[in-house]
Design a protein that fits this description.
This protein is α+β, with helices and mostly antiparallel strands and about 500 residues long. Helix content is about 30%, strand content about 20%. It has 3 domains: about 5-215, Roll (Ubiquitin-like (UB roll)); about 230-370, Uridine Diphospho-n-acetylenolpyruvylglucosamine Reductase, domain 3; about 380-490, CO dehydrogenase flavoprotein, C-terminal domain (Enolase-like, domain 1, 2-Layer Sandwich), CATH 3.30.390.50. The chain is globular, with a radius of gyration of 24 Å.
Length: about 500
C-alpha cells in the first residue's frame, strides 16, 4: 500500500496516495480538477503554473513562510506537511446549492484589471500568485523587487508595461494602508494579519500555522539511502526525466533539517546543501562580505526557480555551465560528503572527474558547502542569449586578493568551455604572488586559452566561446584594476 502524503491544499486537508514523484501541476488539474493553474512549458520557464508553497518557519512554526514555485517541477512528495496554495485558494469562491458566490477581487487582481494587464488571461493566474507570494514573503515592499518576483512569468500579449504599472499602483495602494508605527521587519509582528485585513489573502490563512502544527507527516525516506533517488529542488531533474521519477523510490532533501543549516566554523561559512538559491540573499555573511554574489542572483534564474533550486543540487547536477557552481569554484568552496561513518571533505575543484562524473562514493550525501571567510574582490560575468533567465553560453567568476598592487591569491573559474565546471588552475597560479601588470594578464589569458576545451554546439562555436571567455576575464580585471588597463589595447 502506498504511503499517504498529507498536507493542506488551499483551505482543505488532503491525504493522497499518488506517487511522491507526481508533479503538483498534474495533481491539481487531473486529480483535484483545479484548472486555474495553467499548463504551459512544463520546464519552469513560463510561470503559468505558479503556486505558493508554505512551510513552518520562524517563531517555532508560529509563522508560515510562503514562496512562489513552479508546480510543473514540484513533486507531490515535497508538499508533505506543508500548505499548497493554488489560484483558487488565493481568492476562493463559495458555493451554496447551485449558486456560486464569487468573492470580490483581491487588490492584486483588481490592479491587473484596472490597468488592462489581462488580455487573453492565460498567464494571469501565475502573475497573481507570484505577486501574492511576494507580498507574503517580503517585509518591506519595493517596486524593483516586486517586478523581479514576476520575472519568471511570461505574458505574450501586454508587453509588460501595463503589468509594471499595475505593480507600481498596487504597492502604492498597499503601502499607504500600512501602519507606520508597526515594524515590518519582524515576521511575527502581524504581517499576515495586515495582508488579511487588506484582502490580499483570505482569512483562512490565519489558521494555517496551527493546522500545520497538528499535521503529522511521517517523512518520505532517508536521503542517504542507496536505494532511493535523492531529490533536492528538482528544477533540472523533473525536466530531464519526469516519467522515470514517477516510478522511482524517492527521498527529499527538504525533509532533513541539518541540510538547511547555516553556521560559521573556524573562519569558514558552512552552508547546508539543501539551502535554496533565493535564501542566499538573506545570509548576512554573504551580503556583507560578497555582495557581488547576491547582486548576481537575478542573472541565474527566476524567483520561482531560485525558491526551489538548491546549492547542493546545482553542484551535484554537474552542469558545465551551472552558474552557482562556477561562483563557488572561484570562492574556494569545500564540500562535506556524509555517509554512515562520518564526513569526508573534498575541495570543489576536485569534485568533478569528467562529464557528469563525480568524486562521490556510493551512499555519500552532499551535506554542506564551506566557504573561507577571507577578504577579496569577487566578480561574476555571464553571456547568454537573454541577459536574464537564460542558460549561459559561457560564464566566469574570479576571486582575487590584492595588497599594494600585488595579487596575493587568485582563483578563476569558467563554465561552458569544458566538460565540467572548470577551475582555471594554471592561470590562477600564474597570477598568484605577482604584481599586477598588463603583461601578467596577457600571460594568464594565454594559459586560459590552453586550459579550456570548448566545443561547438547550439550555444556557439568553439572560437566564439574562446573569445567570450577572454572578454569575461578581461571584464573581471577592468573592474578590479581600471586604472592599470588601457581600453584601447584590450577592446
Amino acid at each position: 500500500m502506498s504511503q499517504m502524503i498529507r498536507f493542506i491544499l488551499n483551505d482543505d486537508y488532503i491525504e493522497s496516495s499518488l506517487h511522491p514523484g507526481t508533479v503538483v501541476l498534474d495533481f491539481l488539474r487531473q486529480d483535484q480538477r483545479l484548472t486555474g493553474t495553467k499548463e504551459g512549458c512544463r520546464e519552469g520557464d513560463c510561470g503559468a503554473c505558479t503556486v505558493l508553497l508554505g512551510e513552518p518557519g520562524a517563531a517555532g512554526g508560529q509563522v508560515v513562510e510562503y514562496r512562489a514555485v513552479n508546480s510543473c517541477l514540484l513533486p507531490l512528495g515535497d508538499v508533505e506537511g506543508k500548505h499548497l496554495v493554488s489560484i483558487e485558494g488565493v481568492n476562493p469562491s463559495t458555493q451554496v446549492d447551485d449558486t456560486v458566490d464569487a468573492l470580490p477581487l483581491t487588490p492584486v487582481q483588481q490592479q491587473l484589471v484596472d490597468h488592462g494587464a489581462i488580455q487573453c488571461g492565460f498567464c494571469t493566474p501565475g502573475f497573481v500568485v507570484s505577486l501574492t507570494g511576494y507580498l507574503l514573503s517580503a517585509r518591506r515592499w519595493d517596486n524593483e523587487a516586486a517586478v523581479d518576483a514576476v520575472a519568471g512569468n511570461i505574458c505574450r500579449c501586454t508587453g509588460y508595461a501595463s503589468i509594471k504599472r499595475a505593480i507600481a499602483e498596487l504597492l502604492a495602494q498597499l503601502s499607504g494602508s500600512q501602519d507606520s508605527d508597526e515594524s515590518t521587519d519582524n515576521p511575527s509582528s502581524g504581517h499576515l494579519e495586515r495582508l488579511v485585513a487588506l484582502k490580499v489573502v483570505p482569512e483562512y490563512f490565519l489558521t494555517i500555522p496551527r493546522r500545520l502544527q497538528a499535521l503529522t507527516a511521517p517523512g518520505l525516506g532517508d536521503p542517504r539511502s542507496r536505494s532511493r533517488t535523492v531529490v533536492a529542488g528538482g528544477t533540472d531533474l523533473f525536466v530531464q526525466k519526469p516519467e522515470e521519477l514517477v516510478e522511482s523510490s524517492l527521498s527529499f532533501v527538504s525533509k532533513t533539517a541539518e541540510l538547511r543549516q547555516i553556521r560559521v566554523d573556524k573562519k569558514r561559512l558552512i552552508l547546508g546543501a539543501g539551502i535554496c538559491m533565493e535564501e542566499v540573499k538573506d545570509i548576512p555573511a554573504l551580503k556583507d562580505r560578497i555582495p557581488q554574489l547576491v547582486a548576481a542572483l537575478p542573472l541565474i534564474a527566476s524567483v520561482p526557480i531560485r525558491n526551489r533550486a538548491t546549492l547542493g543540487g546545482n553542484i551535484v547536477n554537474a552542469s558545465p555551465i551551472g552558474d552557482f557552481t562556477i561562483m563557488l569554484l572561484a570562492l574556494g568552496a569545500v564540500l562535506g560528503l556524509k555517509n554512515g561513518k562520518g564526513t569526508r571533505e573534498v575541495p570543489l575543484d576536485r569534485f568533478f572527474k569528467g562529464y557528469k562524473k563525480l568524486n562521490k562514493k556510493p551512499g555519500e550525501l552532499l551535506a554542506w558547502i564551506a566557504l573561507p571567510l577571507e577578504e577579496g574582490f569577487f566578480s561574476f560575468e555571464k553571456v547568454s542569449r537573454r541577459r536574464h533567465l537564460d542558460i549561459a553560453s559561457v560564464n566566469s567568476a574570479a576571486w582575487i586578493s590584492v595588497r599594494d598592487g600585488r595579487i596575493e591569491k587568485a582563483r578563476l573559474s569558467a563554465g561552458g568551455v569544458a566538460p565540467i565546471p572548470l577551475f582555471l588552475a594554471r592561470s590562477s597560479d600564474c597570477l598568484t604572488g605577482r604584481p599586477f601588470s598588463e603583461e601578467l594578464l596577457e600571460q594568464a589569458l594565454t594559459l586560459i586559452h590552453e586550459e579550456i576545451s570548448p566545443i561547438s554546439d547550439v550555444r556557439g562555436s568553439e572560437q566564439y566561446k574562446r573569445l567570450l571567455l577572454r572578454q569575461l576575464v578581461l571584464a573581471h580585471f577592468f573592474k578590479l584594476f581600471p586604472e592599470k588597463l588601457h581600453p584601447e589595447v584590450w577592446i
